Amino acid sequence: MHVLLIEDDPLVASGIRAGLMSFDFVVDHVSTLSAARQALKIVTSDVIVLDRGLPDGDGLQLLAEWREQGINVPVLILTARDAVRDRVDGLQGGADDYLVKPFDLDELVARLHALLRRAAGRSSGMISHGALALDPTAREVYVDGQLVMLSRRELVLLETFLQSPRSVLSNDQLKDSLYGMNDDVESNALNVHIHHLRRKLGSVVIETVRGLGYRLGKPEAVHLAGAPYKGQRHTEQPYKDLL
Ligand code: CA
C-alpha cells in the first residue's frame, strides 16, 4: 500500500517513514503543500498522512482542495495541537482520522489499516477472497488456512488486488502501490511479481485484462499451487526481495 506522507519535521518524517516501511508500506515523503500537490499528480496513493503546520501553509488547505476536486483518498491528519477545535476542523474539512503528536507508531499503523479497510468496505481486519486470506498487520497470507511464503513485494501486490477485488488495475496503479516516486524500477518488475504470484497461488489468481491491466481472479479460482511452504515466515526476511 502506498502512503503519501506530508510532514516538514525531518525527524518525525524519517521515524514515520522507517516505521511504516517495516510494515511493508511504500512511503513517499514530501515536506510542503506544493510538493504534495505535485506528488499527487504523479503517483496514486492509497492513503495520505498529512501534517497541519507546513512551511507554505496549513495541511487543511490542501485537504480542502483535494476534496473539492473529488479526490477521495483517505486522509489522516497529524497535529501537534490538542485543541478540540483543531480536531473538529480537521474532521469537518474532510479528514478521515487524526492523530495528535507525539503518537505511537503501532497506533498510526492500526489507524491506516482501519482507513484502508473502510475505504474497501470491509468490516474485518482479515482480507478474504475465496480460499485466500491476508492478515495486513501480521503480513501473512493463507490459502485454505495454510501459510504461503510470499516475498514482500508479492505480498504488497496481492494486498493491492485484494483491496480492490472487482477493479481492473492499470500497470501504473500497480507500480505505484509497489514503488515510491524515486525508486528505480526495472520495466518488467511488475510482470515478474505477477508471474510469481500465479506460480504460487495458481495461474488464474490474477487475470490479464488486455490493454487495460490486471484484475484479481474470481474467489473460487484461488488455490494453493504446489506444496505449502513450511519454513521461515516471510516477515523474518522481508527485504531480500531486490526487485
Ligand atoms: Ca509541521
Automatic annotation (TrEMBL):
UniProt KW keywords: Cytoplasm, DNA-binding, Phosphoprotein, Transcription, Transcription regulation, Two-component regulatory system
Primary localization class, coarse: cytoplasm
Domain Response regulatory intervals: 2-116
OmpR/PhoB-type domain boundaries: 124-218
Lineage of the organism: Bacteria, Pseudomonadati, Pseudomonadota, Gammaproteobacteria, Oceanospirillales
Subcellular location: Cytoplasm
Highest rank taxon of the organism: Bacteria
Organism whose genome encodes this protein: Vreelandella neptunia
DNA-binding region, residue range(s): 124-218
Keyword Transcription found: yes
PTM-bearing positions, type 4-aspartylphosphate: 51
PANTHER family: REGULATOR OF RPOS, TRANSCRIPTIONAL REGULATORY PROTEIN QSEB
Protein name: Response regulator
The keyword Manganese is assigned to this record: no
InterPro entries: CheY-like_superfamily, OmpR/PhoB-type_DNA-bd, Sig_transdc_resp-reg_receiver, WalR-like, WH-like_DNA-bd_sf
